[in-house]
Amino acid sequence: MDFHNFITIREANKRSGVIEKPDDFYRMAMADAVEMNSAQFVAQLVNERDWERLRRPYYNVWPSIVPMLTRLNLAPQGKDGIREPIVASDIGCYTLGVYPPLQALDTCGCMGASIGQALGLEKAGVPERTVAVIGDSTFLHSGITGLIDVIYNQGKTLVVILDNETTAMTGHQGHPGTGVSVRGKKGRRVNLEALVRGIGVSEVQVVSSFDLKEIEAALKAGLQKTEASVVIVRGDCPLHVRPQTAPFRVDREKCSGCQACLELGCPALHPDGDVVDINQGLCVGAACNLCRQVCPQEAIGEAQA
């Protein structure tokens, strides 16, 4: 059972009122986790370019986190005077960015540890800039104190908060940033921008998680700062807020087969002979738009009537 089917089954169970046993979640999830825990297995998939199997762990998180991770991964050492940073990750859907094709993360500790790790590396004297990646729910759960430490200790860590306005990793529960209680009742909502500014961060940027140029510019600006800064990358989780947009298609005559789009790790994209094709059941089209942004041939877009 792959992650995509696993998530689909869980959604169906919730809608039909089926109550899962506590063990069901772990038994089903671990079936794939055990298979994917071998670096040798992953390397084999890369060599074989078995994209479909390799991308299975990403099914429940793309495309909402891929732009930020891709831009961190593509920042080459020395480009624009920026040395490739060390990226400390946290516990969340985005942790899967450690796998190919992104390979964008360097560390992963306990929940809320990314900011402290990044600050610790900085204070230990590593020459690279440090970046902490953390989700919105994780930040509110246990990342706030880490950011306070960065400010108090005059660090210059760049903190990237991936805000999909839900707790996606464990089933789209509410958290203080959503304004929805555990009982599903609406209440007061914590404003992330106001919160981090209140802690003492003066450099706060909010960008769309589906605008690659905007994300890249924000990250470059943050890495050039001489003080701590925060970039909030905001965009809906596609499994939580399902967009009503038509899927994209590939113009096979324009596609050169460069496979630049496959580097996004999107499960909807797959090789088809000498070109790339799009799974119409997985693509959310213009609601994401990432593949169209990276295609050098402009071969991806909405189907022509």
Provide structural commentary:
By secondary structure, the protein is α/β, with parallel strands linked by helices. The chain has helices at 3-16, 22-36, 39-48, 51-54, 66-73, 114-123, 136-152, 192-199, 212-223, 290-294, and strands at residues 86-89, 107-108, 130-135, 158-163, 203-208, 229-234, 248-250, 269-272, 275-278, 300-302. The two termini are 37 Å apart. A 6-stranded parallel sheet has the order 2-1-3-4-6-5, with helices on both faces. A two-stranded antiparallel ribbon has the order 7-10. Helix 5 packs across helix 9 (212-223) and helix 6 (114-123) runs parallel beside helix 7. 39% of the residues are buried. The protein folds into 3 domains: 3-58, no CATH class; 66-234, 3-Layer(aba) Sandwich (Rossmann fold); 248-302, 2-Layer Sandwich (Alpha-Beta Plaits), CATH 3.30.70.
Features of this protein?
305 residues, alpha/beta, Rossmann fold, Alpha-Beta Plaits, 3 domains, six-stranded parallel beta sheet, two-stranded antiparallel sheet, 10 helices, disordered N terminus
Distance N terminus to C terminus?
Answer: 37 Å
Radius of gyration: 20 Å
- CATH top level of the largest domain is Alpha Beta
What form results from the Cα inertia axes? globular
| CATH-level-4 superfamily name of the largest domain | Thiamin diphosphate (ThDP)-binding fold, Pyr/PP domains
What fraction, in percent, of the residue positions are helical? 25-40%
- Count of beta strands: 10
Main β-sheet: number of strands, strand sense, barrel status?
Answer: 6 strands, parallel
